[in-house]
Automatic annotation (TrEMBL):
Annotated Gene Ontology cellular component terms: mitochondrion
GO molecular function, one term: tRNA binding
Record protein name field: Glutamyl/glutaminyl-tRNA synthetase class Ib catalytic domain-containing protein
Keyword set includes Lipoprotein: no
PROSITE patterns: AA_TRNA_LIGASE_I
Keywords: Aminoacyl-tRNA synthetase, ATP-binding, Ligase, Nucleotide-binding, Protein biosynthesis
Biological source species: Aquilegia coerulea
UniProt cross-references to SUPFAM superfamilies, sorted A to Z: An anticodon-binding domain of class I aminoacyl-tRNA synthetases (SSF48163), Nucleotidylyl transferase (SSF52374)
Keyword Protein biosynthesis: yes
Length: 300
């Protein structure tokens, strides 16, 4: 949900030659039809209490066993290795003996994630799947499902995770509510895992689209530096046209109850005076409050 809400805020849109709806999903009944039609391709069987080799917790779940094919590529139980496309400088391989048979449909008839996403991507003709490296185990399962259904395999690429300074997982922070600019967030996130080969750091979204190439994506994990993000936001803040900057900061002060709309002239002069010293629109709040709150003198 955070991604669905965050992407529109960052003003990321579909390219002109793609669908006008960036978030698509197939209905469960559509996906279920694939699992029903292709049971023979999978060699699907339903487990029961008579399957003595199955763990107790798997009883009554529908599981998939890939039958032998002439090349042996679809048999999961053996020691063969599944290879799948990988866009970086190295190929990733996985020993199939470590995988075993896996569930594609629950006992209530609902297909599981790996089956659903494979059907979704294949029927929408997705050509490239780029996601975090933690999805590598899912990719093996999806590659086998692609083969079993006879779908063309997309290119898979897995990028390193973005970590906190202590190398733990990043926590959720509401940067929108903190008044970060969406263009600054896009610029900073892009540079966490990619670079154009120069020292350039300031990019508009359009310039990022023009300069991006998959071969320059970093293979090592990136560290999220909130100080650098704040600096980046200041660069984009000062790059705004003066009229837009005055409107943005002025609206902030009026919402915060610091100034009124009737004080437009003061807002314009204050923004011009303070813009070089702020990285967030909230940075000047205390300064402006100090300037407009009447002084009270006490005489003893």
């Amino acid at each position: 949900m955070a991604t669905l809400l965050g992407v529109p805020w960052m003003r990321i849109r579909c390219l002109p030659n793609t669908t006008t709806h960036p978030f698509l999903r197939r209905s469960s009944s559509y996906i279920l039809s694939f699992s029903t039609q292709n049971r023979r391709s999978f060699g699907v069987f339903a487990s029961s209490s008579s399957d003595v080799n199955l763990p107790e917790k798997k009883v009554n779940e529908v599981r998939v066993r890939f039958a032998f094919s002439p090349t042996g590529n679809l048999h999961v139980g053996g020691a063969r290795t599944a290879l799948f496309n990988y866009l970086f400088a190295r190929l990733v391989s996985w020993g199939l003996e470590t995988l075993g048979d896996f569930v594609i449909m629950r006992s209530n008839g609902q297909p599981v994630y790996n089956f659903c996403v494979t059907v979704d991507d294949a029927t929408m003709a997705i050509s490239h799947v780029i996601r975090a490296e933690e999805h590598l185990p899912n990719t093996l399962r999806q590659a086998l499902i692609y083969q079993a259904l006879g779908f063309p395999m997309p290119h898979f690429a897995h990028v390193s995770l973005i970590l906190a300074p202590d190398r733990s997982n990043c926590r959720n922070v509401m940067y929108k509510e903190m008044r970060y600019l969406p263009q600054a967030m896009v610029n900073y996130l892009a540079l966490l895992g990619w670079g154009d080969g120069t020292a350039k750091e300031f990019f508009t979204l359009q310039k990022l689209v023009e300069a991006f190439t998959i071969d320059r994506v970093n293979k090592s994990g990136a560290i999220f530096d909130s100080t650098k993000l704040r600096w980046m936001n200041g660069q984009h803040l000062r790059a705004l046209p003066p009229k837009d900057l005055i409107k943005l900061v002025g609206e902030r002060w009026m919402v915060a109850g610091i100034l009124k709309e009737s004080e437009a002239m003061f807002i314009q002069e204050a923004v011009e005076l303070l813009k070089d010293g702020i990285d967030l629109v909230t940075d000047a709040d205390s300064i402006v409050k100090f300037a407009v709150v009447p002084f009270v003198f006490y005489f003893f």
